Amino acid sequence: MSVLTISHLHKSFQVGKQTREVLHDISLTLADNEFVSVVGTSGCGKSTLLSIAAGLEDYESGDVQVDGQTIRGAGIDRGVVFQSYTLLPWLTARQNIEFALKAAGFSRAECREKADQHLELVQLTAFADAWPSELSGGMKQRVAIARALSYRPKILLMDEPFGALDAMTRHQMQELLTGIWEQHRLTVMFVTHDIEEAVYLSDRIVVMGPGTIQATFDVPLPRPRREELTASPEFTDLQRQVLHTIRSGHTRAALA
Ligand SMILES: Nc1ncnc2c1ncn2[C@@H]1O[C@H](COP(=O)(O)OP(=O)(O)OP(=O)(O)O)[C@@H](O)[C@H]1O
Fold this sequence. Notes:
By secondary structure, this protein is α/β, with parallel strands linked by helices. It has two domains: 1-77 and 157-228, 3-Layer(aba) Sandwich (Rossmann fold); 86-152, no CATH class. It is built from seven helices and ten strands. A hairpin with a 2-residue loop joins strand 9 (204-209) and strand 10 (212-218). It is globular and about 55 Å long. The protein starts with a strand and ends with a helix. Adenosine-5'-triphosphate is lined by residues 13, 15, 22, 40, 42-48, 193. Residues 13, 15, 22, 40, 42-48, 193 line the site of adenosine-5'-triphosphate. Residues 4-235 form the ABC transporter domain. Belongs to the ABC transporter superfamily. This is ABC transporter ATP-binding protein. One of its GO terms (molecular function) is ATP hydrolysis activity.
């Protein structure tokens, strides 16, 4: 069953007097518990697509449905994690999560219980009372993930969530996310520039060219995914195919 259904989506931006179409007739579905990454060259429309799915950006035509209902703006059926740290600096890690839960309508006791459960999920129980300024970049993103998951959205939308982290922390975050996914099964749309990250985490990879979907790749690699997998011929071959598709689309666009 499909959780997110995007149909014939068109989106333009007005730049001065000109209208620039940045998404052209995009159709995409995410099945229940499917992890789908969206990759493509810079400026091809990945973040715009994710923002529309999050209900943070409008669109001219087409339809975006979550569980068969057309979305009307943002909602607690979708959790969002961005690259930039979005914690409220005047609230502790736990309070940041409680704040989102309170806005979602949970009682005070539920807010506390769910915040603590999700801090444990991202292995940050010991930092529940820390201020964002006392947390590393990776820790802040762990709180952001805990916050986005705490109200049990139907879909998690992640826009380059590990893009600002150093290589080692990024790797740890990938392990954490894949571990959470394998235990709890979530529907995830994950925008990234990193093809290795996309192959490692995903069930399916969507390659975008400028404004369009160029190709999709199933990722038939076994789970649980562990680091050794990244050296296997199946992994590197798929990585190469995705890279080749991105590059050929880029070349076509440059020649057009
Ligand atoms: N608010 C805006 N006003 C005008 N143009 C915009 C706006 N937001 C995005 N664009 C343009 O839309 C296109 C798609 O942008 P988007 O950020 O979705 O691409 P992206 O694939 O996520 O890029 P990147 O990988 O660099 O983050 C780009 O050409 C960008 O300049």
